[in-house]
């Protein structure tokens, strides 16, 4: 993986992590809202059931009992909370409902019809309910909702809503006890549930429904979604990483191919040494540096002695092995600000920038001749070649590349025509 793509992948990973974190928070809140909404649906169902019971008592049960009284089938002062008290019947039905929920493995639902003036003390409003009733009668609030926790730390949705205000018909049982059925008065003392006023909110319905089951459902849904989301983001990230990796590989391949093409264009295929074109560019650059820094540049024009006989009389393969071996030996001489190139069949040239004088050049030439002309074994045969070197120096012998190469070449041929295997300066 290319280092230049690391910031991109880091930014991408950070962005995905930010998205995942944001959605995690969002779905955590959504889970809570889901639990509350599901609990509210259950409360709404209970309230609708409560209203249905109330309506049934008021429109079916009581009228039927009053009809029986009017027809003399029931005596006038008959009263039983089991058949005529909406509160009694609603509480009983909710009790049976909780029994069924318990059998089904569900948490019980708290239900209470709370009032400050109850007939049954079980309906007595506690301190909070009494305060809520006052606020409802004062018109400050219409209902009350709050998330509460019990002693075990379980969450519940607590809702309190008012019953309908007292009407004139309600006062028959909740007004002056002298107007109420005698059996009701006998069952409930005069201090219980009487002397209410028309228009007042007598009681509130208090419901506390558990959130745990809904929370678990929400968490399960949210967790499933987050796993899917994380997997999707990870898959997208891995695909992006994979394609970046492929692009990097392709780019690296192109770079390597370009480097290979550039190397082929600037180096000799057989020996691996720089070719004439590359050598000329390098040498001209060193001449320019020499002009600026007033330093000298030396050209050593090298020609192998006895190579033609090996190449023509033995084999080209043997000749190639000799050239490769000589080139490898040349490589051991290369230092900073120096280059050796193959510029012809058995011709080489060395440029040295910033040498310290002719004595240093003489040492280099002698070492080249000594080290690079040692016997060579190729195709099971042993060969020995010589080396003639012509040396020109910038700016003493010329100021351009062509002039210096021509002068070094001329000095090299003088060596070959006189005493091969040695070197000669132009001057």
Radius of gyration: 54 Å
- Widest beta sheet: strand line-up: 6-7-5-10-11
Shape: rod-shaped
What is the mean predicted local confidence, pLDDT? Answer: 86
| SS element count, helices | 12
Low-confidence stretches: none
Structurally, the number of domains stands at 2
* CATH topology term of the largest domain: Beta-Lactamase
Largest sheet report? 5 strands, mixed
Give your account of this protein's structure.
With 427 residues, the chain is of the alpha+beta class. The protein has two domains: 3-164 and 201-221, PAS domain (Beta-Lactamase, 2-Layer Sandwich), CATH 3.30.450; 276-425, Alpha-Beta Plaits (2-Layer Sandwich). The protein is 56% helix and 16% strand. The chain has helices at residues 6-70, 81-84, 86-103, 127-137, 171-174, 182-187, 212-266, 276-293, 307-314, 316-331, 358-372, 401-417; strands at residues 110-115, 144-149, 155-162, 203-210, 297-305, 338-342, 347-353, 376-378, 381-383, 386-394, 423-425. It has a five-stranded mixed sheet with strand order 6-7-5-10-11, sandwiched between helices. The protein has a four-stranded antiparallel sheet with strand order 1-4-3-2, with helices on both faces. Helix 1 packs across helix 3, helix 1 runs antiparallel to helix 7 (212-266) and helix 9 packs antiparallel against helix 10 (316-331). The chain starts with 5 loop residues before the first helix and ends with a strand.
């Amino acid at each position: 993986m290319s280092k230049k793509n690391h910031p991109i992948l880091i930014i991408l990973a950070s962005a995905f992590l930010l998205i995942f974190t944001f959605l995690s928070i969002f779905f955590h809140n959504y889970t809570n809202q889901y639990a509350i909404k599901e609990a509210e649906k259950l409360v709404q169902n209970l309230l609708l059931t409560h209203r249905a019971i109330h309506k049934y008592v008021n429109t079916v049960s009581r009228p039927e009992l009053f009809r029986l009284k009017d027809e003399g089938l029931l005596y006038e002062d008959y009263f039983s909370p089991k058949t005529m008290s909406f509160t009694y019947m609603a509480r009983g039905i909710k009790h049976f409902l909780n029994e069924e929920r318990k059998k089904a493995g569900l948490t019980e639902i708290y239900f209470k019809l709370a009032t400050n003036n109850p007939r049954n003390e079980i309906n007595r409003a506690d301190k909070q309910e009494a305060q809520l009733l006052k606020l409802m009668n004062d018109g400050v609030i219409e209902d009350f909702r709050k998330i509460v926790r019990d002693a075990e730390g379980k969450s519940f949705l607590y809702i309190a809503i008012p019953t309908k205000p007292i009407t004139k018909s309600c006062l028959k049982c909740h007004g002056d006890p002298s107007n109420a059925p005698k059996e009701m008065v006998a069952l409930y003392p005069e201090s219980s549930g009487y002397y209410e006023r028309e228009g007042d909110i007598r009681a509130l319905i208090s419901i506390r429904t558990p959130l745990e089951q809904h929370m678990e459902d929400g968490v399960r849904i949210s967790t499933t979604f987050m796993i899917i989301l994380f997997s999707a983001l990870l898959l997208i990230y891995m695909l992006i990483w994979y394609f970046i990796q492929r692009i990097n590989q392709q780019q690296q391949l192109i770079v390597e191919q370009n480097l290979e093409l550039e190397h082929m264009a600037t180096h000799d295929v057989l020996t691996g040494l720089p070719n004439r074109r590359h050598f000329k560019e390098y040498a001209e650059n060193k001449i320019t540096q020499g002009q600026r820094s007033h330093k000298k540049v030396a050209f050593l024009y090298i020609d192998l002695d006895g190579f033609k006989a090996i190449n023509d009389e033995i084999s080209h393969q043997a000749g190639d092995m000799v050239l490769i071996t000589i080139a490898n030996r040349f490589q051991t001489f290369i230092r900073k600000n120096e280059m050796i190139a193959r510029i012809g069949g058995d011709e080489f040239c060395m440029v040295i920038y910033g040498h310290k004088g002719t004595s240093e050049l003489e040492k280099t030439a002698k070492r080249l001749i000594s080290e690079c002309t040692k016997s060579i074994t190729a195709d099971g045969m042993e060969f020995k070649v010589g080396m003639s070197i012509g040396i020109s120096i910038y700016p003493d012998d010329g100021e351009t590349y062509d002039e210096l190469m021509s002068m070094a070449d001329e000095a090299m041929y003088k060596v070959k025509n006189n005493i091969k295997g040695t070197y000669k300066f132009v001057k």
